[in-house]
Predict the structure.
Amino acid sequence: MMGRIETAFAAAASKPAFIGFTVAGDPDTATCIRIARALIAGGTDILELGVPFSDPVADGPTIQKADERALAAGTTPDTVFEIAREIRKVSGVPIVFLTYYNIVYRRGIKRFYREAHDAGVDGILIADMPVEESEEVCAVAARCGIDPIFLITQTTTDDRIKKIAAKAHGYLYLVAVLGVTGVRDQVSEGAIDLLHRVRKHTKLPLALGFGISTPAHARTCARAGADGVIVGSAIVEIVERNLSDHDTMVLELQDYVQSMKRV
Amino acid sequence: MSALIELEGAYEKVNKDPQFARDLTALQTEYAGRETPLTFCPNASRELGCKIYLKREDLVHGGSHKLNNTLGQALLAKQMGKKRLIAETGAGQHGVATAIVGAVLGMPVEVYMGEVDTRRQALNVFRMELMGAKVIPVKSGTRTLKDAINEALRDWVANVRDTYYLIGSVVGPHPYPLMVRDFQSVIGREAREQVMRKEGRLPDAVVACVGGGSNAIGIFHPFLADDVELIGVEAGGEGIETGKHSATLCAGDAGVLHGTLSYLLQDEYGQVLPTHSISAGLDYPGVGPEHAMLRDKHRVTYAAVNDPEVLDAFRFLSKTEGIIPALESAHAVAYVKQNADRFDKDDIVIINLSGRGDKDVAEVAAMKGGA
């Protein structure tokens, strides 16, 4: 049986899947659920939820501020599972958690993955877990039916790409920039080179993220043969800009995703 | 991760290179002023009822032990062909030590420093800038040392090809804790030889303050196989029970921060907690992983002293010996003072005086009570 993530890539077929990210609990639980619904209504193929962390070293200022807002609103892993359950009630869209190792480690790896599975989560990416340290997590993920998703960067060697491709399921998250998350002007040549380099080693879907925000970016990725584009900071910026008017926020989000899907 | 693998390989290579060792020793002796004295303190010994020696890392060029590490890592960075050094700093001592090596070895330096700390340690900001380094105030998170490390890591991943991240303590991902420990172990090697020369025997105890833990591991490491009591002193801040402290080994739990599994001050969900200490240099919620192991093996005793005792020790050493300790190092002095009855008249106690206190004078003077 195909999992929800695999199905989503198959359904997107000739076009890259749109993978939309928002921070769970930003700015609060109820609004976050509205945000997720707006992203899905706009056509998001896979929903990524950031589990907020006090020290998100892979993220730029936009997402770090969102993490701070979510934590200030009292977001805990329990809240994040609750948000996933609420979305799952109304949608079959695949849900992927993005988090940092200490959040999972503190809760207990087995408990975290079991609870995630029960909440309807399909994949988990731990930003600060190198593949060399992933054995236990991957074993638990396999038992819980959750896809372990890994980051690959432009400095990742071919040897490590092979190691990562052997452990990963669902898709590979290719980091399009040298650096942290955040909106950039264009998709770098390095990102396209990376896409072609990784393609040689795996049949897994390849999604480009970090610095991707406009339809033009998405077109560049599509032409280069990406199976998915991941947008985080651009979505979080819309949230941030409309904190005082949630109705406008969700309308803008839905329009934005639609514009990204029209490529 | 690729950058860490590259670094590990480069470090293994220089470790076996006699020329690298010669270059480092030359800089340590001719430039940094090693070896540093092991000073007997007659007045403090009389007052505390045991033989007190200070390992004088305050006399290393720059005013603290930090240069031991920055000289080693900067030489390594040159060897690796890196063009630019970045660093984080808390109290500013590591930033100053990085600015020094940048100037003398001709490499541009950028130092990330929590905005709170740039205010607490304005003098060190000025010193870094004088030596040509750029100081970048960090305004994210708690605006202290851990956030400076976050920003330095972000810079590093964005500029990894030409930039060397020069970490200042035995924290962060492998191989940093190992490498920094090796470069700081010169403290303990010298102290061991010096005490044998002066007293004909090993000390009864060696005491050092612990933030990230580099000066402590540096002096402890060469004594690990000996029958010598080793004591690490953490920042108790306003008291562990108040929650306003940085006593990671005394009050933390296992956790992962900055690529290291160690003890960590965190809440029940794994969010890293804000820390407090009178000394910016100890204000870090994690601690070197080797200290975590030494704690679990019961080889090193870890204790905490609170801010008022630290201030008291700061004044005590200044008055009795004419040596103004850094507030960080004053934690070690405070522990010995508080626990003086544990030691007999003939017991030899070495305190690692990891830095001088000039940087702290203005802040102490501004506190209620002054000197």
User: Anything to note?
Assistant: Residues 18-32 of chain B form the longest helix (15 residues). Chain B is about 45% helix and 20% strand. The first strand of chain B starts at residue 38 and ends at 40.
